[in-house]
């Protein structure tokens, strides 16, 4: 009976943990979107300059700044390059977050932007969403956790039985030798 309650408790823990997964991926995606909007707005003036003088080419704008004899322009090129690289990384993250729920979860689990992941972890608000994805993820996680623990317990039980059977046969053999 204790085993049944343990299995039920593990399923419940897995269910609650699994329900959090889609919510976490959603909050991560919202942070990516917010950062992308912010960087896009900050970069808009530079893009207008590139559009006006360099046919829209940011690389040409950067080359112009980097080849300048003015040290202010050369230093500014570093800032522009960093902002442009961030904009490109965020665009890739945003594209990854525009996939199926499973793809988003796998992306956040294995290839997230570390800065945004850390922000999401530190500011994550636990929720119990009742969306179909959250319920499916929760039930799946609960079942897998319960199954893994059940398999471990069954395996440990078999090992214990073998050890006890070996100890009994050794004890029986020793007792039989003492009789003769």
Q: Specify the structural class.
A: mainly alpha
Task: Give the low-pLDDT segments.
Answer: none
* Number of domains as seen in the coordinates: 1
Give the helix tally: 6
Q: Which oligomeric state applies? A: single chain
Major sheet details: none
Q: What fraction of residues sit in β-strands?
A: under 5%
Q: Whole-Å distance between the termini? A: 45 Å
Helix content: over 70%
Q: Could you tell me the radius of gyration in angstroms? A: 29 Å
What average pLDDT do the residues reach?
87
Order of secondary-structure elements = HHHHHH
Tell how many strands the DSSP assignment holds.
0
The dominant shape is elongated
Structure in words:
The chain has helices at residues 2-54, 58-67, 71-96, 101-110, 114-123, 132-179. It has six helices and no strands. Helix 1 (2-54) packs across helix 3. It is mostly helical and 180 residues long. The chain has one domain (2-179). The longest helix is centred in the N-terminal third of the chain and has 53 residues, at 2-54.
